[in-house]
Design brief:
The protein is α+β, with helices and mostly antiparallel strands. A hairpin with a 2-residue loop joins strand 2 and strand 3 (43-46). It is globular and about 40 Å long. It has three helices and three strands, in the order βααββα. It has helices at residues 12-19, 23-32, 48-56; strands at 10-11, 38-40, 43-46.
């Protein structure tokens, strides 16, 4: 049987910690770049796999 593993969403604070930057940096990336983020209610959410791909693409260097 194939098990489908669903990735959890992480918060803006968790994303900043994961990437080693400040929350303000992540907020600036949301405004100025195509960082993969979803707004759920009033909160921004991220998937680690999407952040990894975005970083590897070089788009995080603004």
């Amino acid at each position: 049987m194939n098990e489908v593993r669903q990735e959890n969403w992480i918060s803006l604070e968790e994303a900043a910690t994961y990437m080693g930057v400040t929350k303000d940096t992540v907020r600036n990336w949301i405004k100025k770049t195509d960082i993969p983020a979803q707004k759920i209610g009033k909160q921004w959410k991220f998937k680690i796999s999407e952040l990894d791909e975005w970083i590897k693409s070089g788009k995080s260097a603004m």
